Amino acid sequence: MKMHLSRALCATTALATGLLMAGSAMAQSTGTAVVEELIVTGSMGPRNMDGVIVAESEPKSRASITQEFISRMAPGQTILDTINLLPAVNFTNNDAFGSAGGDVVLRGFDSQRIALLQDGVPLNDSGNYAIYPNQQLDSDLIERVTVNLGTTDVDSPTAAAAGGTINYITRRADDEFGVRTEVGLGSVNFQRYYATVETGRVGPWGTKAWISGLYTKNDIFRPHDATQDPEGKIEKKQFNFRIDQDLGEDSFVSLIGHWNQNRNSFINRISLANYRARVAPVNGFQAANENINPSNTGNLRALSSFKLNETLTLTVDPSFQYVLANGGGAGNWAETDLQLRGNSGAAGVDLNGDGDLNDTVRLYRPNTTNTRRYGVTSSLIWKFADNQNVRLAYTYDKANHRQTGDVGYIVDGKPEDVFGGKDGRGRPVLLPDGTNLRRRDRASVAYLNQIAVEYRGRFLEDRLLFNAGLRAPFFKRDLNNFCYQNNTFNAYCTTQVPTIVPGTDDGTGRPLVRFPASALNSNANNLYGQPREFTRKYDDVLPNVGVSYDLTDDLTIYASYAETLSAPRTDDLYDRISVDPGPESAKAYDAGFRFNRGGLMAQGAVWFNSFTNRIERVFDEASGIAFSTNVGDVELFGVDFQAGYDISEKLNVYGAASYIESEIQDDIVDGSTVLPTEGRSLYETPTWQGVFRVNYYPTEDLSFGWQTKYTGARWSNLVNTEKFPDYVLTDVDVRFKLDRFGMENTYLQANVRNLFDERYLGDMTSNLTGTGLGQPGYRRTFILTLHAEF
């Protein structure tokens, strides 16, 4: 039986360093893997149940899934959708295939307050800390996903981890030559083509590697009651490779590469009122072609571990990341617009080349981000006793973050280049004074230097595990704004001479300014802060401690405490007025149990999080100024639970549930207005969540999976005057093996998403007050995949 074979492979207890090479896929960084495996014991029960629930041993709240379960989900799906069955995790997907984006909330913390990592490398945007689900590694190449619920590992190289971490691990190369291929077809013209070639061990040193390619495309799904625009398309190309080299003596080096190219059209959102009235968004021709979200992203990651002697191990994990992405858009410019003329004295710019200045021309105006990011995570680990070790860790992270808005031309209703006039990719709109037309222009360098120390030991016949550490991050932000700033989101780039506004101050002693109305300055009364260069620094010492005790061979209890820090998003520091909202911080408390006996695996926790200095956007109506500020403290409390049970050799069930309460501690002073937020709840967070899954194996060839997720109602603002309704999504997967037809390791898999065609609002845009906007949920979707291995 497949279920029992997987358990036989995983049932042994991980002892000492002999399992390092296989087990390094079980933790965040290589250093964390080594530390955790040196002295882990645990029960002799199953290590996982069909990959949907995994036996954890860390003295803190953690949940994981493995490739065995990941492969049952829709192939190619974003990994964040796949972890949606874990307790306290809520992911809202923008389509059924994982290529259109979405949002994740973990224990009441939104995605900008969660750290997403790949092999320990931070993937959050270095400017706004956003997570982009559609840019993640293909699901077939992910060995395991581990979610730290509410805290981080001591060497986590992230500025955005106030609410916890999600880390997924790339699968290692196989020892034998082989090929894996998948072809998938589905609803709304979905197509997916995927292949991985394994080299096996080759050459004099037994080097092994794989290389992988993926192409997928589909139409934008058709929301309920909407007229679908045939121009709305989603296309993704992805290439990956991995090289693994054993060095003997429990030492190794791995090099991993990833490249992802997405071409998306935005799916419009609607208000709750329009949703209830069944007024759905319509993607017009211009919207589908101009409101696009292209991205080119890639990274190189190296993992290495060197056993220096019997007691000393060094790990070094360097990385490089590249991002070129934008949110598209378009606008109309009169050829005599004042922004085009600047201080040149020219009458205007002939945008369409017809020899006059009498026209209004539509131009493509994206907000483009280009990032080059360098990092390294390293640990020196001293195992000074069989059951004790200590490590010293150092993390360095530098992100060169360039945000521009080089305007480009639209040809035949489509952008000439999806990145506009960026670096000559498309024709820039050249102005008479020698500059090019743009909507923003700023350069940021985000630094992290972090030192951490950690002690770990087992006592009382290895029943007691004690872990304690200190993490000391030092953040620095070098910021340069070359344009006039209206608020965090809107700038005005021009060589026009501004009008000084007496009695105002941009926070640096200089007055605010005004410009006559133009295409990118909609109102002549708009106030702008002047271009400036400045630096911000943040640092702290963050303790964490955890303890677990094996009451029996099957039952463990644990408790943990950790402090976390999230430095202000770079985007929040660029504003009309030079302000420093300060960092967000949290104190996380957990207590829980784990039980593993026979056919039952279960774990649960009760937790409390004291969250300080939440940063939000506020608006001062008296001055007309929007800015970022600390709006006070938030307390969060919850209960998590998950369990899996073998009913028989052919049938098992899994369930998870979570309850989350959040409470804002004070009213928010929004400029001259006091918002009644004291005692209110955070937006986006469902109070109740629950999931139930059944795995059934009637024969050796045939298997079924049924999964239902309940997501409770969610507030859309912080004053709690509007709530998006709850919903239930059911997915089904069926797999038929073709071994009996002479096609070994080949199967057909059918996935049905949203089986009952539930009508719901998923991802939301929330506010301090007022109404939110919701993403219409995808309809019932069918996907058929042929998987073959040779």
Automatic annotation (TrEMBL):
The keyword Membrane applies. Pfam families: Plug (PF07715), TonB_dep_Rec_b-barrel (PF00593). Its main location: membrane. SUPFAM superfamilies: Porins. GO terms for molecular function: siderophore uptake transmembrane transporter activity. Residues 1-27 form the signal peptide. PROSITE patterns: TONB_DEPENDENT_REC_3 (PS52016). It is found in: Cell outer membrane. Keywords: Cell outer membrane, Ion transport, Iron, Iron transport, Membrane, Receptor, Signal, TonB box, Transmembrane, Transmembrane beta strand, Transport. It is a multi-pass membrane protein. Residues 245-755 form the TonB-dependent receptor-like beta-barrel domain. InterPro entries: Beta-barrel_TonB, Beta-barrel_TonB_sf, Plug_dom, Plug_dom_sf, TonB-dep_rcpt-like. Gene3D superfamilies: TonB-dependent receptor, beta-barrel domain, TonB-dependent receptor, plug domain. The keyword Iron applies. One of its GO terms (cellular component) is cell outer membrane. Residues 57-163 form the TonB-dependent receptor plug domain. Belongs to the TonB-dependent receptor family. This is TonB-dependent receptor. It comes from Phenylobacterium zucineum (strain HLK1). The lineage of its organism: Bacteria, Pseudomonadati, Pseudomonadota, Alphaproteobacteria, Caulobacterales.
